[in-house]
Amino acid sequence: MSTSNSVGRLTAALKKDRSGLCAFNFADGRQCRTPRRSGHLHLCYFHAQKEAESLAAKQAGKDISTFFSMHQVSACDLSAALGRVFSAVAEGHLKPKAATALAISVRPSTNPSSSPGTKTPTSLSAIPGAEE
Question: What is the pLDDT along the chain (132 residues), one digit of tens a residue?
């Protein structure tokens, strides 16, 4: 009987030892049980990849927002910002739907030759191919 007690304690100790497992906590309080990625201190491959994508998206947002930090935005600034938007979409850091919304928001200022009766689409569904 003493061997079954020691096996039970050993099993309980191993369950509590999470040093080799991912440290990601889900919203409901559960913890990820996947082994940690060899190159990451705390997360498994999936959660490390998600964290890297999130950080890259935040950085892309900061890069783009620097062009709009002034009261007056030049055509060069707008062009550079749109270049960053397209680059972020190509690299997968920004969703195409969000890029379309950004492009729509700057369209009136970039197309002064449009007639006053021409309507600018107010939603993504009004643009062909914008649905994702």
Answer: 455 565 555 555 555 666 789 989 999 999 998 998 887 788 999 999 898 888 888 888 888 888 777 777 788 888 888 888 888 888 888 888 988 887 787 765 545 555 555 554 555 555 555 544
CA-to-CA dists, residue 12 to 8, 21, 24, 87, 127, angstroms? 6, 16, 21, 50, 58
Give the span between the Cα atoms of 124 and 132, in whole angstroms.
10
Q: What angle do CA 42, 43, 48 make, to 5 degrees?
A: 130
Q: What is the pTM of this model?
A: 0.54
